[in-house]
């Protein structure tokens, strides 16, 4: 399968390991990964803050970059960006775009997936040959849980990872409090929600908290760092890309 990889803004600027790991994983599974070089932001942050007309050029560009018929599927290591492409792009195109843009958006939305969806639903795999010998807990992010409804797909993938010690996160389906600009505009509420999430993570004794969105991991990771918990945040893609032959940096560091 020929798969178009969308990096996302956070992946491009702050968390390139999640993007790189996605490409490594899919290549290892025998697929061709292509990276359209003219891709830009998907426009989610504009839409979520009420600026629906402004991201019209971004939505158009996304459809143009990934609309090539030779690209069988589009994947991104982000439930929130996948949710935006699948649901919000149509809203923008319907309100402010033309017929050609609406058609292009529909074509791309139909073949866009968050990573766990692509692996389980499209490629039909749960065991991907991963190796991650650490105690891990999983946080289901809001967009993946409520907008995409990925369900237990990430957990099915994690359960198949060799040597992993996967522990359930209490209150897993509660929001971590990030929500993009929500964390800035409602800082006290966001901090209280984050506190509850950190308490839940602490009870698991996990070395690693994983999720499918770098944005939530950034928020949670900041909280974990400030209280010096010792728990690290690692994107799901990194765990799935790690093998015995090419272990993740956490495993390499532990073996030194």
Q: Write the element-wise H/E pattern from the N-terminal end onward.
A: EHHEHHEHHEHEHHEHHEHEHH
Count of helix runs: 14
Helical percentage: 40-55%
Rg estimate, integer Å: 18 Å
The biggest beta sheet is recorded as: 4 strands, parallel
Could you report the average pLDDT, rounded to the nearest whole number? 94
Kindly name the structural category.
alpha/beta
Report the count of strand segments. Answer: 8
Query: What does the overall shape look like?
Result: globular
Uncertain residue ranges: none
Straight-line distance between termini: 38 Å
Order of strands, main sheet, comes to: 2-1-3-4
Care to describe what's here?
By secondary structure, this protein is of the alpha/beta class. The protein has helices at 9-13, 16-28, 44-48, 56-66, 79-96, 99-109, 115-122, 142-147, 153-159, 182-185, 187-204, 214-226, 236-241, 249-255, and strands spanning 2-5, 32-34, 73-76, 112-114, 135-138, 165-167, 208-211, 232-235. The protein has 14 helices and eight strands. The chain has a four-stranded parallel sheet, sandwiched between helices. Helix 12 links the parallel strand 7 (208-211) and strand 8 (232-235). Helix 5 runs antiparallel to helix 6. It is globular and about 55 Å long. The model has no long low-confidence stretch (mean pLDDT 94).
Per-chain topology:
Blueprint: E1 2-5, H1 9-13, H2 16-28, E2 32-34, H3 44-48, H4 56-66, E3 73-76, H5 79-96, H6 99-109, E4 112-114, H7 115-122, E5 135-138, H8 142-147, H9 153-159, E6 165-167, H10 182-185, H11 187-204, E7 208-211, H12 214-226, E8 232-235, H13 236-241, H14 249-255
Parallel strand pairs: 1-2, 1-3, 3-4, 5-6, 5-7, 7-8
Helix pairs in contact: 4-6, 5-6, 11-12
